[in-house]
Design goal:
Blueprint: H1 2-25, E1 28-35, E2 41-45, H2 50-62, E3 68-74, E4 78-81, E5 103-104, E6 118-121, E7 134-135, E8 139-142, H3 149-153, H4 156-167, H5 173-186, H6 188-197, H7 199-206, H8 216-224, E9 237-243, H9 245-252, E10 267-276, H10 277-284
Antiparallel strand pairs: 1-2, 1-10, 2-9, 3-4, 3-10, 4-8, 5-7, 6-8, 6-9
Length: about 290
Amino acid sequence: MKKMNKLMIKNLAMVLLFSIFYSCATDKDYLVTIKTEYVEMHAILYDETPKHKDNFIKLAKEGFYDSTLFHRVMKKFMIQGGDPNSKSVAPGARLGSGGPGYTVPAEFANKYYHHKGALSAARQPDQVNPEKESSGSQFYIVQGQVWTEEELTVDMQALGKATQQMMQQPRFDSLRNVLITIYQTEGPEAYGKKLVSLKDLVEKEMQVKVTKAMSPERLKAYTTLGGAPHLDDEYTVFGEVIDGLEVIDKIADKEVDRANRPLEDVVMTMSIEELPRKKITKLYGYEYPAEEK
């Protein structure tokens, strides 16, 4: 009995020591600092995307990103960087095909999405990349835009198709002419808003549902902070900018050429350091989810 008690005590001590060690290990996280001509941006990387997190940390520590450019900039969408070829090419040259020579398997985590500041992996299109594998180094940071609740909860493709079918009925000739006029004189954005205003009529007349579900969390983020919801579940989101969101806006405002490369180079350097999570929260206000503390 005494031997059994000693064994139980020994096992309990080992469990306790492991618990303490694990708690200390997870009490720290990596802080990414991205420097440009503007103030710094600070970002964290998600544990739920370990392959992307480990790869990004490795490249950053090696200085892979230093002197590379934000080579693709699209206002109200995103800023993209991480092409090693951007270190040496001439102004105006096309960029976007460079990398470390490998890809990273997709890691989709439902809790993460493309709100403003989301740090995500660039990739080749589905036609040549059906597995949606990520570039080994290229990434983008979302700027996006603020959306209305209707824009986020209406399936525009389904609405457009149902509206076209409805417009084939002679009794909707006048409405069809209105839609054509709006498209020709005011453009696609105004046309889309008009379609949204017809949603209830189209659903009633065509006996279809053109609404789609979105979680309350995403809905709130996209209607306040903004983002690019059409990218969700298509590209791996593996981190987020937690400080310096205004830098995204400044870079996105840059004048660009036809390939969306800024006419004036936006050079970056990147550093990474391990800090206590409580310190990251104190410095930048980022609150880790409860299960991660």
